[in-house]
Each structure stands twice: as C-alpha cells, then as structure tokens.
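[job 4471] stage=fold_predict status=RUNNING
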Amino acid sequence: MEQMTLTEVVQDIHAMDEELWHYESRYGLRTRYFLELYEAGQLHDEDSLQTRDYSDWAACYEIKQHREQLYEVAVRETLKKAQKQTGISLPDLKRAWRPVPLSTGA
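[job 4471] inference complete, writing structure tokens
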C-alpha cells in the first residue's frame, strides 16, 4: 500500500483547491452547487470536453475530501500523543508525523 507524508497530503489538498478553483472559474459555479447538479444527473453534456471536465471536477473533489480525512485522522492521533507532554513544539510535532496509508480508492 502506498503511503504519503502529511506534507504530501497537505500539498495534495492545496493542489485540489487550485483545480477546483479552475473549474469554478471556468463554469462560474461553486463546486458545492456543481455537485448537486452532477449527482442528480441534471447537467447536459454539450460536448466531450464538458463531459470530461464534469467527471474530473467531481473526482478532484473526492480526492480532496479523502486527503482531508487522512489529514484529520493523522493529526488527531499525533496531537493526542503530544498532549500527554507539557507543551507542544510545532517542529517536534511535524517530525512526529508518520506516513499515512493511501488507500487505493482515491
């Protein structure tokens, strides 16, 4: 199973934010509202570029959600361990982060 460092997870989250912004600016619609239409099957695919954009846009959002979940779990676990100590040093906290397993789903 592939693993990612927390830095890589954060980089992926920011990269997905940039991709989502790209689609939102192209189509003039925030991702939340796009997904409502997409998941309800209400979008008319005018051409193959739009069809691909729609599926890529939805996949990008799913990847971002997955990475945010990975980040949340890893940080919570690390903070839980660190809080047993007196005071938390952010550089020490970063060094304590372990690579997180990347499931094959996203």
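[job 4471] summary: The beta strands are 3-4, 100-101.
[job 4471] exit 0
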